[in-house]
C-alpha cells in the first residue's frame, strides 16, 4: 500500500470533518439533493467527455495507487544487473526463461535473447514509453476534468437553491436555512475537486514520470547487456539514474 497517498487522503478528510464537528452539528452539512446534483452531474459530464472505458480505467488506476507501493529506481537497476549476471553465466538465450510480471521487462529480455540490434531495442521501448505516457495522460485529463466539473455543478446547485429560496421570500424565517442548503453544493464540489480529483491527477502525473524513468533504465540496461554483459559495468552505467545519496542502498 502507498502510505503517503492513504495518509494524505485520510488526514485531509479527517481535518475537514474535525473542523465541521468543532463548529457544530454535522447534519447541517448533509444535503441529499445537493449531493445528487454534484455527483450525478459530474459523472454525467465526464461520461459525455470521455469514453466510459477511459473513465473506468482511470478510476482503477487511482484505486491502485492505494494498493501498490511506489517502485524504487534502485530496484529496477538491481533487476537489470541480475539479468546481466544470468546472461553472462548462462548465455543470452537463458533470458527467454526470465519470469516477471512486468511485460516491458519481459519484452526487453526476449529482445536481448534474440540478439536484437540496439536500435530495434531502442525503437521498441521508445514506442512502449510513448504508449504508456499517452494512456496515462488520458487518465490524468479525466481527473482534471472531474476537478473542473465538480465545482461547476456545485455552483449550479447553489443557483438552484437560490432560486428556490427567493421563491419563498414571503417567509423570512426560511431564508437562513435555505441559504445554507444552497451553499452546501458549492462546498461539495470544492471538496471533491481539491481533496480527491486534483490530488489524484497530480499523483498520476508523478507515477507516469516514475514509470518513464523505469522504462529508460530497462532500455539502457538491455543495451548495455548486449554491448558488454559485464554485470559490474552494467551497474556502473545504470547507477547514474540513482541519486548519489541513495546509491548505497543499491547493489
UniProtKB/TrEMBL annotation:
Compartment list: Cell membrane; Membrane
Endpoints of the signal sequence: none
Q: Spell out the protein name for this chain.
A: Chemotaxis protein MotA
One Gene Ontology cellular component term attached to this UniProt record is:
plasma membrane
Q: Which residues form the MotA/TolQ/ExbB proton channel domain?
A: 99-215
Q: Does the keyword DNA-binding apply?
A: no
Q: Could you state one GO biological process linked to this protein?
A: bacterial-type flagellum-dependent swarming motility
* Record field: transmembrane: 28-50, 146-167, 179-201
Bilayer topology annotation: Multi-pass membrane protein
Pfam annotation, one family:
MotA_ExbB
Enumerate the InterPro entries for this protein.
MotA-like (IPR047055), MotA_ExbB_proton_chnl (IPR002898)
Instruction: Please give the family membership noted in the entry.
Output: Belongs to the exbB/tolQ family.
| Keywords of this entry | Cell membrane, Membrane, Protein transport, Transmembrane, Transmembrane helix, Transport
Q: What is its main location?
A: membrane
Amino acid at each position: 500500500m502507498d502510505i503517503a497517498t492513504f495518509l494524505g487522503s485520510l488526514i485531509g478528510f479527517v481535518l475537514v470533518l474535525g473542523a465541521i464537528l468543532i463548529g457544530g452539528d454535522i447534519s447541517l452539512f448533509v444535503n441529499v439533493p445537493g449531493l445528487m446534483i454534484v455527483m450525478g452531474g459530474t459523472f454525467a459530464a465526464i461520461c459525455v467527455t470521455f469514453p466510459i472505458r477511459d473513465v473506468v480505467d482511470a478510476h482503477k488506476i487511482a484505486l491502485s495507487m492505494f494498493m501498490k507501493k511506489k517502485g524504487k529506481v534502485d530496484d529496477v537497476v538491481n533487476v537489470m544487473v541480475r539479468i546481466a549476471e544470468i546472461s553472462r553465466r548462462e548465455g543470452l538465450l537463458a533470458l527467454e526463461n526470465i519470469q516477471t510480471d512486468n511485460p516491458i521487462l519481459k519484452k526487453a529480455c526476449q529482445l536481448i535473447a534474440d540478439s536484437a540490434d540496439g536500435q530495434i531495442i531502442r525503437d521498441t521501448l521508445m514506442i512502449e514509453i510513448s504508449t504508456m505516457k499517452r494512456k496515462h495522460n488520458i487518465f490524468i485529463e479525466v481527473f482534471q476534468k472531474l476537478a473542473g466539473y465538480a465545482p461547476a455543478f456545485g455552483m449550479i446547485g447553489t443557483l438552484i437553491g437560490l432560486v428556490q429560496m427567493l421563491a419563498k421570500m414571503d417567509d423570512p424565517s426560511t431564508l437562513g436555512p435555505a441559504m445554507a442548503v444552497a451553499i452546501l453544493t458549492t462546498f461539495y464540489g470544492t471538496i471533491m475537486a481539491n481533496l480527491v480529483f486534483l490530488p489524484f491527477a497530480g499523483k498520476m502525473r508523478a507515477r507516469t514520470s516514475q514509470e518513464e524513468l523505469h522504462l529508460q533504465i530497462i532500455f539502457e540496461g538491455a543495451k548495455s547487456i548486449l554491448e558488454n554483459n559485464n554485470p559490474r559495468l552494467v551497474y556502473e552505467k545504470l547507477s547514474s539514474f540513482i541519486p548519489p545519496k541513495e546509491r548505497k542502498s543499491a547493489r
